[in-house]
């Protein structure tokens, strides 16, 4: 059996991805539940712009040049 040291980075990543997928499928507490229609509708509505900061403002705030 190969060890982790014998794997390529891509092989290791694929093993990790598959493990995460399996774990989520086995332990998803929301599996089988349906989304409320009002929630689905809210996903198609644009978010209000109030309180949002542009990337330029955020960069300037932290001393970065964008």
Summed up, what is this model?
By secondary structure, this protein is an all-alpha fold. The protein is 50% helix and 0% strand.
Q: What does it look like?
A:
It is a single chain. This protein has 66 residues and is mainly α. The protein has a domain at 4-46. The chain contains three helices and no strands. It is flat, with a radius of gyration of 21 Å. It starts with 8 loop residues before the first helix and ends in a 5-residue tail after the last helix.
Distance between the termini: 49 Å
Structural class: mainly alpha
Give the % helix. Answer: 40-55%
The assembly state of the depicted protein chains is single chain
Strand content: under 5%
How many β-strand runs?
A: 0
Large-scale geometry = flat
Biggest sheet details: none
Order of helices and strands: HHH
Q: If you compute it from the alpha carbons, what radius of gyration comes out, rounded to the nearest whole angstrom?
A: 21 Å
- How large is the count of helical segments? 3
Poorly predicted residue ranges: none
Average pLDDT for all residues: 87
């Amino acid at each position: 059996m190969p060890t982790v040291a014998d794997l390529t980075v891509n092989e290791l990543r694929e093993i990790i991805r598959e493990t995460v997928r399996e774990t989520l499928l086995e332990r998803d507490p929301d599996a089988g539940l349906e989304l409320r229609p009002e929630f689905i509708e809210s996903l198609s509505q644009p978010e209000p712009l109030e309180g949002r900061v542009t990337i330029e403002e955020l960069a300037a705030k932290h001393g970065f040049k964008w």
